[in-house]
Amino acid sequence: MKRMQTCLLGGAVLILLYPALLAGGTATKLKVTHAPGAPVFRTPVLGRPFATLPLNTVVDAESKQGEFWKISFDFNGQKTNGYVHEVLVEEVKEAELQGGTGPLGPVKTQPEMVAEIELKIEECQHRVVRERDLPDQVDTLRSLLPKVFNLEDGQKQKQLACDIYHWTGQALSKQGDDARAIREFKNMFEVDFLTAKKATKYVSDPNISQLITTAERQYNGTFVGYSLQVDTEPKEALLKIDGKVAGHSPDVLPLDTPNVTLEIEKEGYRTEKVVLSLTDGKTVKSFVLQSVARTVRVSSDPPGAAVFLDGKDTGRMTECDLGFVPFGTHKLTVRKERYADWEDDLVVAEGSGPISKAAILFAKTYFSVFIWGGPESKAFVEPRAIILDKDGSYYVIDNGPVRVRKFSRDRGGQPSWGEGGKAFKSLKQPAGIAVDGAGVCYITDARASTVNKFDKNGRFVRKWGKPGAKSGELFQPTGIAVDANSNIYVVDSGNSRIVKYSPTGVVIKIWGKLGPDPGQFFAPTAVAVNTHGEIIVVDRGRIQKFTPDGESVAAFGKPDSAEAEIKLPVGVCCDGYDNIYVADGATHRVKKFQSNGRYIGSFGGNGSESGQMLGLVGVAVDVKGSVIVLEKGNKRIQEFQPPEK
């Protein structure tokens, strides 16, 4: 075990107070600042000095080893190397070497010096215990070390030196610098082991006690080094020590120094960065990582669509998981060829488990899959309107011998319905048709300005209305629709208004007049009811949406492109997703819009080939998403389906 060695030099007992730690340095000039002189040792460890450099002596320093300078100086006429303690000298430049020595001041007696040092140590001790001005206490305590060199009493030197290192270490630990505190405590053992043990016998702070134990183990050679065990939840986090990759959790990391900066990184979790001062050979640290992201599960119908996040292609196709999407609001886009882009605001908030997003993709391109009738066929004479009931049966208004005809889902005729057509002979100019959930049929007669009601077998029940503009009157009614409560909505085209009736023909509500503003109309032609009970009306160049009581909800006009412009609407319907399909007689195309008015796409075109349209007069959608189109010019019905079907 090491022991503090003392020596008598010029009547003073000199004690080596600091440990020697090997370190490199560069040549410089040193000047002795300690009034009694600076003792010179042959090695940077405790021992008997072989020389003393007087105050203001300037020597060359070759390197720094711990708290000792290795110097070169003339000794007995020869160039000699030795070691001086850093507190007894200071670095100087050539320009500073011209100055002389200042006054040394009055010389104090040994008892006065001891009393002064003890008083300062006691004052610092009280402040350290109360954790007051800790950096100042460290500076004050260390400034006492040169004065200890001047004491002649060797035992008093050891006692006071140990006290200085002890309370300096405590002050550093209370500031969070445990690594420097350990060095100070080790210095204490270097001064004198027994004195150090006595000075720290009654330390009650468990952290300080642990630091002192580590310092003692370093002093006596039983300390084998530092290791840091890092555990994280979740596991497999990247571990970095002082900016360099060191492993993945859980792991035990060997360290060369007690002062390290630990960084923990894992995708989707907040980076942890802590500065550690290790106080024992093995330190265990556990961290629960804070999530800053969540997994987003994206699906689409149809599947196989590309997924974009905040405008960037993720490289994933639905159905897929987007791992670790950061908290916050993002723009999620799902894109598939021949379908309109699906977009939604994705809000990622704290929580457990993945966030699910299901994109319903709306086809913007349709393909003709079936044609029924045609210019050379006698299936239809002059078709005017079409509707489907909940069972998929077709109802077609035809300006021929049989004004209204019903067909089964497989397009088979039902000749007995409507008494073989006799029930409809009184209709002068049937224009629009609607069927409620019970199969009751409502037909507008534009010439007679009436609404005609027929039961599920096609037998006449009643009619109401007459030409005029007053309540209960109509003028050239065209489109008609019925809601889930069997309320009827009639486009009173000649009066530029919508009339809502009860199932028995009682007027419930009238709204609208001629004009361009919301709630006004210019040549309205068709009406539909969506799944939310909203009323969709089309007039020249515009789609309007209303509540069942006629309050305006939205108006879609001024399309973003010429392709989306509605020129001559002749029919409208909605699918199960409330997408709106408008039959445009001027362009011979069906134009599709989302419920919010966003244009999706169109299909058709002037002609008689498959997929083309001529004299478009009506449009309907079945429960499977197929679009049924009625063409007066081609005297036929076409069924269109989206690409996936």
Give the helix/strand layout.
Elements: E1 6-9, E2 12-15, E3 28-32, E4 38-40, E5 51-53, E6 58-65, E7 68-75, E8 78-85, E9 89-92, H1 110-129, H2 134-143, H3 145-148, H4 154-174, H5 178-191, H6 193-199, H7 206-220, E10 226-233, E11 238-241, E12 244-248, E13 251-255, E14 259-265, E15 272-277, E16 282-288, E17 293-301, E18 306-309, E19 312-317, E20 320-326, E21 328-335, E22 342-348, E23 355-360, E24 367-373, E25 383-388, E26 394-398, E27 404-407, E28 430-435, E29 441-445, E30 450-454, E31 460-464, E32 480-482, E33 488-492, E34 497-501, E35 507-511, E36 526-529, E37 535-539, E38 542-546, E39 552-556, E40 569-574, E41 580-584, E42 589-593, E43 599-604, E44 616-621, E45 627-631, E46 636-641
Parallel strand pairs: 10-16, 17-23
Antiparallel strand pairs: 1-2, 3-6, 3-9, 4-5, 6-7, 7-8, 10-13, 11-12, 11-14, 14-15, 17-20, 18-19, 18-21, 21-22, 24-46, 25-26, 26-27, 28-29, 29-30, 30-31, 32-33, 33-34, 34-35, 36-37, 37-38, 38-39, 40-41, 41-42, 42-43, 44-45, 45-46
Helix pairs in contact: 1-2, 1-4, 2-4, 4-5, 5-6, 5-7
Structural features, described:
The protein is mainly beta and 645 residues long. It is 14% helix and 40% strand. The protein is rod-shaped. The two termini are 90 Å apart. The model is unreliable at 1-26 and 99-105 (pLDDT under 50).
Q: Approximately how much helix is present in the residues?
A: 10-25%
Given the C-alpha coordinates, what overall shape results? rod-shaped
Order of neighbouring strands in the sheet with most strands: 8-7-6-3-9
Radius of gyration: 48 Å
Strand content: 35-45%
Poorly predicted ranges: 1-26, 99-105
